[in-house]
Structure formats: structure tokens, C-alpha cells
Amino acid sequence: MNLTVMVVDDQLVVRAGFAAVIDAEDDMTVVGEAGDGAAAVSLAEQLAPDVIVMDVRMPGLDGIAATRILTARENPPRVLVLTTFDLDAYVFEALRAGASGFLLKDVRAAELLHGIRVVAAGESVLAPSAARRLIGHYAAGPPVGPRAGQGSLDRLTERERFVLTLVASGLNNAEIAAELDITVGTVKSHVNALLRKLEVRDRLQATILAYDLGLVRASPPGGHV
Predict the structure, then answer these.
(1) Which of 14, 55, 97, 164 is least enclosed, having the fewest CB within 10 Å?
(2) What DSSP state is assigned to residue 141?
(3) In whole angstroms, what is the distance from residue 202 CA to residue 99 CA?
(4) Which residues in this protein are found as 4-aspartylphosphate (predicted)?
(5) Helices 184-198 and 173-180 sit at what angle, rounded to 10 degrees?
(6) What is the full DSSP assignment across 40-63?
(7) Cα separations (Å) of 212 from 24, 108, 114, 161, 219?
(8) Percent helix, strand, coil in the chain (nearest 5)?
(9) Where is pLDDT greater, at 28 or 217?
């Protein structure tokens, strides 16, 4: 499978560097580049890329706003956000906007390419520092209270709800299968069902919703979930 990728960054040199790394791969093709969020939204509509590598800080429409628009479309691309700014606000806003991953721009080429493949496959990827911040954020206080997705939890079966707590705890399908003594295929069926019922696109978005709704609670860094 050849993945089509768009690269969005307001710095031409940075954009060209990422594009060169990606285009050198046999299973990836850079189909377009954009220097700001508005151009990215317009170009993505024409090119329908599988994955968009998105900068955050750009003139005009920034990467977070562009991500929110793109992921609200039918058959949206996967968005992998890259930024030099390892700040809580960017991590949370990017993920809430619908991004499937968040990496820092100093990431190694191999990690960037791995991240693209992971989000293209419907999974999620977070820079280690971003993952620690996400856990720390939810460990810092009580659940935020009812949100629009609260009623969607009621659609889940008891087994799906438990699978969601395991997903939110960071377990992969094989680990969940071992925990519940079921097959990996059955786990995949449960995960696909809960994603559909929660109306979220991937495990990362489901995890955020689970924390937001208080279904699971994070322990402070160094503790146990």
C-alpha cells in the first residue's frame, strides 16, 4: 500500500526537509505541500491524502484550527501534528481537534516515518513527553463533568465499557486479549464497536473521552493507573 502524505509547515526549509525524508520511502508519496492552514484545508480537499503532517504555529489559520476543519469532513485524513513547542495547551488542543498523533520536530526520521505509518493504520502516536503531560493533566484534578459524549457511554455493553478502560490504560489488543482470555480478533471487534458507538475515530480519541467522562482516572506520574 502506498501512503499519500501532505506536509504543512510555514517554513519552506523545514517543509522541504520533511517532504524529502517521506518521499524517499518506497511506501510513501508526498502529494502536496502547504505553508499555512487555509492552504492545507483547500489542498487536502483536492488531493485527499491519507496522512497530513501538520505544523501548529502558522500565519492565518493555524494547524489546530486546520486540523479541526479537516477531521470534521467525511472520510477525513489522519493528522500527525509536529511542533517545536512542547506545551500542554498544544498537546491537548491538537488531540481534541482530532489529531491522531503529536510529535516534536526534533524527532528522528525513523520515528517520524513510524508515526506516519501508525496513524495511517488507524492507531495513534504521542511523543513520550506529550504522553506524560496528558496523564499528568488528568491526574491533577477530578473529571471535568458531563460533556456531549456522556450519553454515548450508555450505548456500550458492559464488556465494551471494560475494554475501553483497558484501552485507556494503554493496553494493546494482544494485552487486552490476554487480560480477558479472549482472541485478538474478538478484541478488535469490541474496539471497533466501541469506537463506532462513541463516534470517535481511533483509540487515542476514545482514551481522551474516557478520561474526560471520568470512566477512568489517571494516577500522578510514577503512580499506577
Answers:
(1) 14
(2) S
(3) 10
(4) 55
(5) 110
(6) HHHHHHHH--SEEEEES--SSS-H
(7) 40, 32, 28, 14, 14
(8) 50, 15, 35
(9) 28
Helix axes 158-168, 173-180, angle to 10 degrees: 130
* Span 62-87, average pLDDT: 88
Instruction: Give 186-192 contacts, CB < 8 A, sequence gap 24+.
Output: 187/163, 190/159, 190/160, 190/163, 191/163, 191/167
As to burial, measured by CB atoms within 10 angstroms (0-12 exposed, 13-18 middle, 19+ buried), residue 181 is exposed
- The kind and range of the H/E element at 82 are strand 78-83
- Which residues make Cβ contacts (< 8 Å) with residue 146, sequence separation at least 6? 213
Which domains are present in the chain? 3-136 (3.40.50.2300), 143-212 (1.10.10.10)
pTM for the model = 0.71
Residue type, 69: I
Euclidean distance between the first and final Cα of the chain, in Å?
A: 37
**Residue-level pLDDT at 153:** 81
Say how far apart CA 142 and CA 145 lie, in whole Å.
8
3-state DSSP assignment of residue 210: helix
Instruction: Give residue 157's pLDDT band: very low, low, confident or very high (50, 70, 90).
Output: very high
> Is-contact 180 192, C-beta < 8 A?
no
CB count within 10 Å of CB 33 equals 19
